[in-house]
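Hey team,

Filing this mostly as a record. A colleague (T.K.) asked me to run one chain through the structure pipeline before their review meeting, and I want the input and output archived in the tracker in case anyone asks later how it was produced. No errors, nothing strange. Just documentation.

Input sequence:
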Amino acid sequence: MKKYILILLVFAALFASAQNVEVRRSKSIFLFPEFRPAKVMQTFGRHIEVERANIAINNGSFVYMQGDSIFTPSNNSILGVQFDSIHIYMRVDGMVMGRVIASENYNNLLCVTTVDSDILTEETNRTTAMAFLSMSGSFFANYDIFDRDEGYPLCDTYFFSIKGQVFPAIEREVKKHIAPDKKREFRNLMADRWWTWKNPESLVQLLPLFP
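Output structure:
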């Protein structure tokens, strides 16, 4: 009986610890506090310089300013954006950009940072939350109306870019791309109780397993 009580107490402590995890937040609806210069990388090795650029956290898309208006480009030739030597982003889907957090043999682990829609909806009314999350179009003229004193809750979603093909970092997608001679190593990782799909340090271990 004491053994079962002890197990229940351990699970209760773990649950309480998970509940107390601090939520990352952004005071701005953009990833960077201020718009900054960026190099926009295009096909055929071309690039253009943009004076004021950022990443919108409602959907992770690349945006830039002209005058007082904020635009999202619709140019399919854009491959990525480099803000500096540390903040390098690659296109995931449309203009959604994922930060390159690890690379090996031209394969990359990407991280898309966006608003945590579940927490946002819990913290505010659904209409306001949906209005923010569905912001789209060529420009946001009145983005100041979405300012929140408490900031926006953030979450990270991971993707792999393997030989130019981008897919989410989830088991059913990843295992399709594992090299034939690395499948045993992949199974060993999946059997590791400490390995997790939510931890970038774990995901980095998959990069050597791709062709």
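Quick notes for T.K.: Residues 2-20 have pLDDT under 50 and may be disordered. The CA atoms of residues 61 and 96 lie 4 Å apart.
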